[in-house]
Amino acid sequence: MRVANISYRYVMSNRFSSYNPEIPARLISCLNDSGARYEILHEPSGPSGYSQRLPAPAGLIGTAVVRAGKHRVLAVMPSPYSVDLKRFAKLIGDPVSLEAADDFKWLFPDCALGAIPPFGNLYGLPTYVDRSVARNQEIVFSAGTSTDSIRLAYVTYTEIVKPLFGRFSAKAHEDLAS
Fold first, then answer.
1. Which residues of the chain fall short of a pLDDT of 70?
2. What is the reported pLDDT for 89?
3. What's residue 12's pLDDT?
4. Per-residue model confidence (pLDDT) at position 55
5. What CATH number is associated with residue 127?
6. DSSP string for 118-178
7. How far is residue 149's CA from residue 63's CA, in Å, rounded to a whole number?
8. How many domains is the chain partitioned into structurally?
């Protein structure tokens, strides 16, 4: 499914920019080339330019870049969860640590920080998906911008990305100070 009236040009004035207003062309090309049916969800920005946060959709997933030995991998899990490093290390077979954005932002030059899509294959990274994500027929994920998400059938996602699977997520800790 192609979406009309939206430009997907690759725009980047600074290679290490932390903000990119456009969905990465490589993501759209990947989805279109695979024949995937998907929906782009756009959160409108308010007058101040900040997006108005809508309630989280069902099937929302998040990503984390993990250092595994000498390599980086992309971990994909349900949005309210985080990577359990002990479980992930056991799954990978190497010591692991979460990478800070400054250590990996160069890997995703066409994505806004905090909006990395779960397509490690497009960025040369192995992708690991937590098995709990399979509970959803559809997934919703960041589309590389701070205001866009994509809804896609989970089965289609796994056919395109061909991720590795395991159990490595844990409920994210709530900040009790706030």
1. 1-21, 44-56, 173-178
2. 97
3. 31
4. 56
5. 3.90.960.10
6. S-GGGGT--EEEEGGGGG-SEEEEE-SSSSEEEEEEHHHHHHHH--EEE--EEEPPP-TT-
7. 13
8. 1
